[in-house]
């Protein structure tokens, strides 16, 4: 279970205008602006839930994921995941979670994917049988048969992404954080990834938290939606509730979300 | 323990991938070593009595320095680590159930060792085959050789531990270039990589020899060339151990503090 209470995090951002004079000026006096990335956020997610975490760019989605995965220490507030505080008990906590950051890579660039997988196996001390079972399942469901033997630098974005997802699941995590996992995927890969995540949830009761700008991902995967803007939770409800906020009858999900963003001025 | 070994293996395989780079490195280092010896020969000819080492000892020092450059060069950084701090890719490493300091330490060892193993043998062999006094001389006693190996291992670990401090400091600066340039120029000179430390004026040398930089290549190479002998060897190696402990402790403190207040950059 994930329990988040009144979590806040502020960043200092150095801002200046363009130009040479401004650059010189900022050498001796820098102006910082405080940005509230997370502003008193609270929510609870039960085991086996699939939650879509949406919001405009810079709303605080990634910051939340970073706090939940133990990478970022918040300024104030509480957060316990399966009884642990992520940033205090980082090593124990990360054993139970899998993370995919859509814009980053965890695979080693110059060697075949399978070498990275084996390294991850050893890092998490995954037992041999469990690793074999997971690997076979992942290879089959994400159709990685040929891909795993290829060096990562020669993979396309979509192929790499499927490997990234597989890499995050080799140790059978109870919670999976997906930060824009379908970025750059073609239609076939997208469907494959969605199917796979659904299956994972049904079969292993894995809790999934997903941030994305692709509303079809949300529609296909999640039963509950958290809408965040300017660091605050603005809506916490089901997909139907979200649809209920629509002004027009047959507005698409994208239009509804855009309308909500406007409505909340975020 | 197995995970660190596995990590070592991975980094090792990775370092082994670049054969042409290794060949180019071997040639460069050989030519460089030759030039260095010829330069010192000119000094030696001008005034042999002012020369602080035996000339043959100097030759051995230079050949070892070139052969094991990858173990001891303080200007050799892992770009990926700076990159991962700069771009925020470190996020993934923080999601692993391992200690970041230990993981990066192992990584540093593996990276340098894989390079050194590929390169040292041709250079050592050629150095050995050269005519005297330019050649690499074998030590008279096995005990000297054993002490040399132990001291080399210590010096190597000191180099890696020193690098870890610089990586740790990088967390505070966003752009690592500045710290890197200052630290590497300083370390290059004070470790005896430019000129062996016996060539420094006595008063300066007395101080420099106590610094952590002197605990890197200076000690093992001078043990080998028997420029340091007797009880001085133990004293120098004790200093290596002390510096290793200090550098690791400082590095760990810096790293833990940095991670506590870390902001992973970029989305």
From TrEMBL, chain A:
Keyword vocabulary terms for this entry: ATP-binding, Nucleotide-binding, Transport
UniProt cross-references to SUPFAM superfamilies, sorted A to Z: P-loop containing nucleoside triphosphate hydrolases
A molecular function (GO) term: ATP binding
Matches recorded under InterPro entries: AAA+_ATPase, ABC_transporter-like_ATP-bd, ABC_transporter_ATP-binding, P-loop_NTPase
Pfam family, one: ABC_tran
Segments forming domain ABC transporter: 2-255
Record's keyword annotation contains Transport: yes
Name the record gives this protein: ABC-2 type transport system ATP-binding protein
Organism of this sequence: Lachnotalea glycerini
Top-level taxonomy: Bacteria, Bacillati, Bacillota, Clostridia, Lachnospirales
UniProtKB/TrEMBL annotation, chain B:
TM regions (residue ranges): 20-40, 60-77, 116-136, 142-169, 233-255
Key words, A-Z: Membrane, Transmembrane, Transmembrane helix
A Pfam family this chain is assigned to: ABC2_membrane_6
Domain of life: Bacteria
Listed name of the protein: ABC-2 type transport system permease protein
Organism for this UniProt entry: Lachnotalea glycerini
Lineage: Bacteria, Bacillati, Bacillota, Clostridia, Lachnospirales
């Amino acid at each position: 279970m994930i329990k988040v209470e009144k979590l806040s995090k502020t960043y200092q951002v150095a801002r200046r205008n363009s130009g040479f004079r401004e650059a010189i000026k900022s050498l001796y006096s820098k102006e910082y602006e405080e940005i509230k990335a997370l502003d008193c956020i609270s929510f609870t997610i039960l085991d086996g839930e699939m939650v879509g975490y949406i919001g405009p760019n810079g709303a605080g989605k990634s910051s939340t994921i970073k706090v939940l995965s133990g990478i970022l220490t918040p300024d104030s507030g509480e957060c316990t995941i399966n009884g642990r505080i992520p940033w205090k008990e980082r090593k124990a906590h990360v054993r139970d979670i899998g993370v995919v950051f859509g814009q980053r890579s965890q695979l080693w660039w110059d060697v075949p994917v399978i070498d990275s997988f084996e390294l991850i196996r050893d890092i998490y001390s995954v037992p041999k049988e469990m690793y074999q079972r997971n690997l076979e399942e992942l290879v089959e469901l994400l159709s990685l048969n040929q891909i795993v033997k290829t060096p990562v630098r020669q993979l396309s974005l979509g192929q790499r992404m499927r490997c990234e997802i597989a890499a995050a699941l080799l140790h059978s995590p109870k919670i999976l954080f997906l930060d824009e996992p379908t970025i750059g995927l073609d239609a076939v890969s997208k469907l494959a990834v969605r199917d796979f995540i659904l299956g994972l949830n049904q079969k292993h009761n894995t809790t999934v938290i997903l941030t994305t700008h692709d509303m079809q991902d949300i529609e296909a995967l999640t039963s509950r939606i958290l809408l965040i803007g300017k660091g605050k939770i603005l809506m916490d409800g089901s997909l139907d509730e979200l649809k209920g906020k629509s002004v027009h009858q047959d507005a698409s999900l994208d239009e509804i979300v855009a309308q909500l963003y406007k409505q909340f001025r975020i | 323990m197995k995970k660190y070994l596995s990590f070592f293996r991975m980094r090792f395989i990775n370092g082994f991938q670049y054969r042409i780079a290794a060949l180019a490195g071997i040639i460069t280092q050989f030519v460089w070593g030759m030039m260095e010896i010829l330069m010192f020969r000119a000094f030696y000819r001008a005034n042999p009595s002012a020369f602080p080492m035996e000339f043959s000892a100097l030759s051995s020092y230079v050949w070892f320095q070139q052969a094991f450059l990858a173990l001891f060069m303080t200007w050799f950084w892992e770009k990926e680590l700076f990159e991962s701090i700069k771009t925020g890719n470190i996020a993934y490493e923080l999601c692993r159930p391992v200690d970041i300091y230990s993981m990066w330490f192992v990584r540093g060892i593996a990276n340098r060792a894989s390079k050194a193993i590929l390169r040292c043998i041709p250079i050592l062999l050629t150095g050995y085959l050269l005519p005297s006094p330019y050649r690499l001389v074998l030590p008279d006693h096995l005990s000297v050789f054993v002490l040399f190996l132990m001291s080399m291992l210590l010096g190597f670990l000191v180099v890696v531990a020193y690098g870890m401090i610089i990586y740790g400091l990088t967390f505070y600066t966003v752009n690592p270039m500045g710290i890197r340039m200052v630290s590497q120029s300083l370390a290059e000179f004070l470790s005896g990589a430019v000129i062996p430390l016996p060539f420094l004026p006595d008063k300066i040398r007395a101080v420099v020899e106590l610094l952590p930089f002197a605990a890197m290549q200076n000690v093992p190479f001078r043990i080998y060339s028997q420029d340091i002998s007797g009880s001085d060897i133990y004293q120098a190696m004790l200093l290596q151990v002390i510096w290793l402990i200090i550098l690791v402790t400082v590095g760990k403190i810096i790293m833990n503090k940095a991670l506590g207040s870390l902001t992973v950059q970029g989305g």
